[in-house]
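hiii so um. not sure if this is the right channel but i have a protein structure encoded as tokens and i wanna go backwards to a sequence. like what aa goes where. can anyone help
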């Protein structure tokens, strides 16, 4: 099943989730559940929005939620926060029209380093509803084109009140964390671009498509910079030499046609580094802290400038962070952070630390009190089935 879902089931069974997950009881105005989604499946998302609306739930914007958490305002009794990570194009194609249909809103955590301005807004589910596009055409559109929201689409969602955009860091991905070689790069289309492990500065090549011509560079053990507070800076000359060697061997044809391509490149790499005493360096301490601050600050500024708003909220990629990363986030201007689950905090209630907001996977939305509520075993069964048959984020 994977370590992620095993840990999740363990936490559920150990009673680390809010009380409503276990019994049909709500925390009322004193507790606001925060749910997290990634890619949007139209049918599933609509069923969840229908459940919320039919049972009188109201979704909040991030600033509304923060003001309530700080004890500054009152909110409707059945309030929730819907958060969507990554800002993928499905937020525009599917979430936007569905949120508008049900009168709800979502907090969307963007990866602004990968976003483009765009040339006009792309069609949404509304085109299917109105008969201007078939369901098949819509599905094909969802599978092609820019994988992220464009800035133009984000502005339209802000204007319509269906989304509140906040920060998910500048580029999201993990970074090299040691000089331990793990393989060599080729674009893996089964993995989202923002999950690729890249050397610092190569994000621009991933976004432009030039990464397709930079095959074969060495990959090293990786971790979250926000969690580990360190980054391994590989040797640029070695990296470029390996890219050149891969091209000389045939590039794409070599990688796609040679079953032993990783082993061949490893031999080339070992030969190359044998005569080099220095093969990279560790960036840690204050230097790494400055990189974290720069990433979080630039992300916040980009969203603020493009959307004309103040960005106060941060969601750490992979829910990976450290105490120091939380402090840096506060220092660069964030007022709240959103995480995963925590052993010492089952829910979000008035007066709690705004930098430690806990979130549940969207499956547990069906645990909220209301007509059609699902018992915990049914939710876990559904979750396992979907995990085995679709996207791992779900």
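sure thing!! here u go:
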């Amino acid at each position: 099943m994977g370590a992620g879902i095993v840990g999740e089931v363990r936490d559920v069974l150990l009673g680390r989730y809010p009380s409503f997950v276990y019994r049909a009881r709500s925390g009322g105005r004193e507790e606001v559940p925060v749910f997290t989604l990634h890619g949007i499946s139209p049918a599933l998302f609509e069923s969840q929005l229908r459940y919320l609306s039919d049972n009188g739930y109201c979704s909040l914007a991030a600033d509304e939620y923060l003001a309530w958490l700080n004890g500054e305002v009152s909110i409707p009794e059945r309030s929730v926060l819907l958060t969507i990570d990554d800002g993928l194009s499905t937020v525009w194609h599917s979430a936007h029209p569905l949120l508008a249909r049900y009168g709800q809103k979502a907090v969307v955590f963007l990866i602004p380093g990968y976003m483009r301005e765009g040339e006009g807004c792309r069609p949404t589910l509304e085109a299917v509803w109105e008969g201007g596009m078939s369901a098949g055409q819509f599905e094909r559109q969802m599978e092609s084109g820019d994988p992220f929201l464009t800035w133009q689409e984000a502005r339209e969602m802000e204007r319509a009140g269906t989304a509140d955009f906040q920060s998910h860091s500048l580029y999201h991905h993990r970074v090299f964390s040691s000089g331990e070689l793990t393989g060599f790069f080729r674009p893996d289309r089964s993995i989202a671009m923002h999950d690729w492990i890249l050397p610092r500065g190569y994000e621009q090549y991933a976004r432009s498509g030039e990464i397709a011509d930079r095959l074969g560079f060495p990959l090293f053990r990786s971790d979250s910079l926000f969690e580990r507070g360190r980054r391994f800076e590989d040797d640029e000359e070695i990296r470029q030499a390996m890219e050149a060697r891969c091209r000389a061997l045939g590039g794409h044809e070599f990688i796609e046609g040679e079953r032993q391509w990783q082993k061949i490149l490893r031999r080339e790499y070992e030969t190359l580094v044998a005569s080099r005493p220095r093969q990279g360096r560790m960036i840690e301490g204050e230097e790494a802290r400055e990189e974290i601050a720069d990433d979080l600050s630039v992300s916040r500024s980009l969203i603020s400038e493009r959307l004309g708003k103040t960005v106060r909220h941060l969601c750490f990629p992979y829910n990976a962070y450290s105490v120091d990363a939380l402090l840096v986030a506060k220092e660069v201007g964030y007022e709240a952070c959103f995480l995963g689950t925590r052993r010492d905090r089952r829910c979000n209630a008035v007066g709690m630390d705004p930098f430690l907001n806990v979130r549940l996977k969207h499956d547990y939305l069906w645990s909220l009190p209301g007509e059609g509520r699902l018992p915990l075993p049914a939710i876990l069964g559904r979750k396992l089935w979907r995990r085995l048959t679709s996207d791992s984020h779900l």
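oh and The radius of gyration is 22 Å.
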